[in-house]
Amino acid sequence: MTTDQQPHALATGPLDVRLLALEPGPEERTFGDAPVTYALVALRHEGRLLLVLERERGTWELPGGGIDPGETPRVAAARELREEAGQVIAPEALRFVGFSKTAFADRPVAYGAVFAAETTAVRPFTPNEEIAAIHWWSGEPEIPGGLLQTVDTYLAERARSTPPA
After folding, report:
1. What confidence tens digit (pLDDT) does each residue in 54-77 have?
2. Is 143 exposed, middle or buried (0-12, 13-18, 19+ CB in 10 A)?
3. Nearest 5 degrees, angle CA 127-CA 132-CA 133?
4. For every residue of the chain, which 3-state class applies, written as one string?
5. Which keywords appear in this protein's UniProt record, sorted alphabetically (predicted)?
């Protein structure tokens, strides 16, 4: 597909990531053109958004990752939040926002389940093999240490404006 044939992106980001759509639920929805392979969490505390610095990509992004076999996207989202950022939110406390349809430079198009939550209790973070740091983002255009994944910040803003189901 040439550049002029690519679908219009809602948002673009570093590493040639393109958000093609934010699709509504239900959470159990499936898609004929690509699988739901990942889950993301837009977690806020006192109005600030949690971002993680992913070591390999060098980008500040929403906590999240792959859905394990037999795992629901909601459970995967809570697990990834805990593993990547040390923050604990019960799966049932997450608010389902929708499905992001994302094009990546080095992988096929995939869907991700997007969830949102608020927390009053921030837990300490310990860097790990995958995540170098966390940052409670207040909207600054740059964060030292990595590139800001603007596709994720776009999704987080949409999550903020999406009413509960």
Report:
1. 999 999 999 999 999 999 999 999
2. middle
3. 80
4. CCHHHCCCCCEEEHHHEEEEEEECCCCCCCCCCCCEEEEEEEEEECCEEEEEEECCCCEEECCEEECCCCCCHHHHHHHHHHHHHCCCCCHHHCEEEEEEEEECCCCCCEEEEEEEEECCCCCCCCCCCCEEEEEEECCCCCECCEEECHHHHHHHHHHHHCCCC
5. Hydrolase
Tokens read off for 24: 């509504």
Residue type, 76: A
Which of 5-14, 19-28, 46-55, 154-163 comes out lowest in average pLDDT? 5-14
CA–CA separation, 69 and 152 (whole Å): 24
* CATH superfamily of this structure's domain 3-161: Nucleoside Triphosphate Pyrophosphohydrolase (3.90.79.10)
Q: What's the confidence (pLDDT) of residue 106?
A: 83
Give the domain ranges of the chain.
3-161
15: left (phi > 0), else alpha (psi -120 to 50), else beta? left
